[in-house]
Amino acid sequence: MKFFMKLERRFAHRKMPNLMIGLVGLYAIGGMLFFTNPTLYFQYLGLNFDMIFGFGQVWRLITFLLFPISGNVFFMLIALYVYFLIAKAMERLWGTFRLNFIIVSGVIVTILTAAAARYIFQLPIGFGTYQIGNNYLNLSLFLFIALSMPEQQFLFYFIVPVKAKYIAILDLVLFGFAIYGGGGGRIEAIAALLNLVFVFLIINGGFSFKQRKRRRQFQRAGNTKRHVPPGSQRVERSSAKPHHEFKPVPKHRCTACGVTDLDEPDMDFRYCSKCNGMFEYCEKHIRDHEHL
After folding, report:
1. Distance between CA 19 and CA 53 in Å, rounded?
2. How far apart are CA 232 and CA 266, in angstroms?
3. How far apart are CA 118 and CA 184, in angstroms?
4. Distance between terminal CA atoms of the chain?
5. What is the number of other CB atoms lying within 10 angstroms of the CB of residue 289?
């Protein structure tokens, strides 16, 4: 977590706010190419390491993202719209830099996984059914949303409200079918899951079951006290004792999990600008909490 925060502070000025819009545009162009000249992608644009290293066609490392999402125009338009909404929701939840990190790392992990499949397992990447795209990386965005906001609702086909955690279950079923089915879909699905684990290890410091247990205990206790600014705390004095014993009072307390600067002296605490009030959060929950 601290490593990623340092990375974010150093490269925050290089973030790309409209990266997902650009990707949606690439997918739309890829769909149009598929419907007008389907052989163009496979001959000159697909991820084919024999052409990249044998003939220097390095542009394929980017143009493989043009791989069509669907062969049906209607479903492709719906998928483009849904991917855009998911990306915007993640951008509001995690911030632009983190969304950029998820997408860029996903593309890199996909390329590395495909390279391993080509040169270690001798699979014909770029030929036949072993075409590599970005579809399962996009589907993995639902898993990111489910892990961060499992109760978030989406309108399935713009009508039926479905919670993110149920969409994630369906997502995992699709991933299972892709891995079982083989071909390029298996490589895409494995790469997307590897990227999911990689991102949570880097950004969140792993899947902290201890943190989740602490949060549940805090919520059960009903400790919903607002943060009191430093200096305004009052220590109750007992008139029965001639000598006053003062206990240390924390200056910072996370509204989500209850951790204080006394529990974690090296922890950074910040106020949330989107919450209605002076609510303070630790570095683990500043971007992972429900706004009050």
Report:
1. 28
2. 23
3. 11
4. 24
5. 22
Give the count of beta carbons closer than 10 Å to the beta carbon of residue 109. Answer: 21
Tell which residue, 115, 129, 126, 135, has the closest CA to residue 30.
Answer: 135
* Maximum CA extent, the chain: 90
In degrees, rounded to 5, the angle at the alpha carbon of residue 177 between the alpha carbons of residues 139 and 131 is 70
Q: What is the token pair recorded at 143?
A: 């898993």
Q: How many CA atoms lie within 13 A of 211 on its CB side?
A: 13
Per-residue pLDDT of the chain (292 residues; tens, 9 = 90+): 567 777 777 877 788 887 888 888 888 898 888 888 888 888 899 999 999 999 999 999 999 999 888 778 888 888 888 878 777 777 777 778 888 898 999 999 999 999 999 999 999 998 888 999 988 998 898 888 888 778 877 766 667 788 888 888 999 999 999 999 989 999 999 999 999 999 888 876 554 555 556 666 666 665 555 555 555 454 444 444 555 555 677 777 887 777 787 777 777 777 777 776 667 888 777 777 767 6
Pull the structure tokens for residue 235: 């220590």
| CA-to-CA dists, residue 134 to 7, 30, 141, 174, 248, angstroms | 25, 12, 12, 15, 53
Tokens found for residue 43: 């001959």
* CB 178, CB 185: distance < 8 Å: yes
Q: How many of the other CB atoms lie within 10 Å of CB of 59?
A: 11
CA pair distance 76, 81, nearest whole angstrom: 9
As a whole number of angstroms, the distance between CA 240 and CA 81 comes to 68
Beta-sheet strands, E only, within the chain: 153-156, 160-163, 269-271, 280-282
